[in-house]
Amino acid sequence: MNALQLQFLMLILAGWVNRHQQDVIEYLQEENRALRQQLGGKRLRFTDQQRRRLAAKAKTIGRKRLFEIGTLVTPDGSFSKTGSTPSERRGCRGTRS
To answer: Which DSSP letter does residue 44 get?
Structure first.
């Protein structure tokens, strides 16, 4: 297999992976829309551990992109610049079950 054939094969593989990832993203966006409809105007309650996990993932995506994809959670108010959780800022010492 020469270099040109290998490049062509890599291009096809990259295109397939990209399309697959886009299909997964579109499914998850639709799933989020359905869940938001079921929630109506109700507010979601997350534990501090859940907030930390979401914030870690959201940081790699960025605030602008989060608003574009329409997440269930907004990045505003969940974490301060220091990375502390809201309950830590309120002075709560224990963890919720």
So the answer is: P
